[in-house]
Amino acid sequence: MQLVGLNPHDHGDLSIRSVPRETRRFTEIVASEFAGAAVCCPIFFAKNADTGELYAGALFGFEEGSPLTGGPGDQTEPFVSLDRKRAGFYIATDHIAIDEACPRFSRTEGEPLFQSDGSPAPALRAVQAVLTQLHSGKSETDAFIKAMMDLRLIEPIDVSLSFDDGERLSLQGLYTIGLDGLGELDDATVVSLFRAGHLQLAYTVALSSRQLPVMAARHNSRLSQEAQ
Fold first, then answer.
1. Element holding 225 (H helix, E strand)
2. Do residues 205 and 176 make contact, with C-beta atoms less than 8 angstroms apart?
3. Structural domain spans, the chain
4. Span 75-90, mean pLDDT?
5. How far is the first Cα of the chain from the last one, in angstroms, to the nearest whole number?
6. pLDDT average, residue stretch 117-132
């Protein structure tokens, strides 16, 4: 991937197509997305392969290319991550850079990025807002994860599933927040977490794992339909 700085001189006629549908199994999200993601996705932590540091992510399915966040025939997605909304756009120091090879970009269709006078068009302003949310959300999320780690509330989770056709599935390298650990916190710590905005996030993560059996049922139903 080669990034280039976005500017009206080189990209004045560039447009973007609509946000692509989710195909990834697991996608990084930030704290402000937890509530929206938990409606349909389990939220887990995973280790960055390069740094070993934990990050938060939404689990959209058990396999790449097979999301399980909606029912059969759903035309709208219940949750669209900020990372997907910014597809093709990146922050490079203080500027926006793009991956010109990203299929989202076009010079013949889509919404224009710039007005005729070179100022940002509504589509680009929307992307700028998303990038701002991601940038500010990263530090907020890192602070939340650190607080959970300091209290030893983050624990590994073993996701082992069996399906009617005999398929067995195991997801490795995921972590969650234990409800037992949250329930054992002393009052002073609970108040401190509440005031920092971390308590609600912690419960959102812990309770989001209840989406796992829902997704498993959808996967099981999909296998049954494919077998017919």
1. helix 211-227
2. yes
3. 3-227
4. 90
5. 41
6. 95
